[in-house]
Specification:
This protein has eight helices and seven strands, in the order E-H-E-E-H-E-H-E-H-H-E-H-H-H-E. By secondary structure, it is an alpha/beta fold.
Length: 238
């Protein structure tokens, strides 16, 4: 895989940055795609590109720039996502559309954009980053949960479409991870969440990255259409 490009969207911070760093260390030629056009600090990336995954034209332009500048995409990790939480009665149309457009539609468009090249190469790895919320549901996150649940159906359909060409498509579903986003939760909410997690702690971002590294590596060549939770037992495999 060293001659091919590994694209990580939303790879400038949080889980995406951990994935980018880990794949660089594993020998991948990683290009980070983010709205800011930047990647994680202290990481020997192959390159970065500006991409807004809520925009079809931005995805198309970003992927074209990656292929023209760095080469064909052999691995895609679709990690970029947003939240706009609220009770459904108070959730605006804009909040619904923005989350679904970014988290679900953007990931499908990314897969469409890299599929042709992977089919020609007769090999490829796609990993979609979902969430335990997409499997269990969460009050106040109807838009987010729906978008993350949709990734499971998308991945399994793609696995059936692309499997005969040697392309695997899998989903990683993290639970609560120590990131800037979870750091903003108040102490009461953090305690409530920890009480529901059998392992009694949040995940480190690198623990999610380790699963992604496995799925895009040679030892996972016979795994496709799977959903792998990294949630400390919160979802119990659902």
């Amino acid at each position: 895989m060293s001659a091919e490009v590994t694209v990580v969207t939303g790879g400038n911070r949080g889980i995406g940055a951990a994935i980018a760093r880990r794949l660089v260390e594993a020998g991948h030629r990683v290009v980070v795609a983010s709205r800011t056009g930047t990647g994680p600090d202290a990481c020997a990336l192959t390159g970065t590109v500006s991409m807004d995954v809520s925009s079809a034209s931005s995805i198309a332009d970003g992927l074209a720039e990656i292929e023209d500048t760095y080469g064909p995409v052999g691995v895609l990790v679709a990690n970029a996502g947003i939240t706009k939480d609220n009770l459904v009665m108070r959730m605006s149309d804009e909040d619904i559309d923005a989350v679904v457009q970014t988290n679900l539609s953007g990931s499908i468009r990314l897969c469409r954009g890299v599929a042709r090249g992977m089919i020609r190469a007769k090999t490829g790895r796609i990993v979609l980053i979902s969430s335990v919320v997409g499997l269990l549901g969460s009050a106040g996150q109807v838009n987010y949960a729906a978008s993350k649940a949709g990734l499971v159906g998308a991945a399994r359909s793609l696995a059936r479409e692309l499997g005969s060409r040697g392309i695997t498509v899998n989903v990683v579903a993290p639970g609560f991870v120590e990131t800037d986003m979870t750091a903003e939760l108040d102490e009461g909410r953090r305690d409530e969440i920890l009480g529901a997690i059998p392992l009694g702690r949040y995940a480190a971002a690198d623990e999610v990255a380790a699963v992604v590294e496995f799925l895009v590596g040679p030892d996972a060549g016979y795994i496709t259409g799977s959903v792998i939770p990294v949630d400390g037992g919160l979802g119990m495999g659902h």
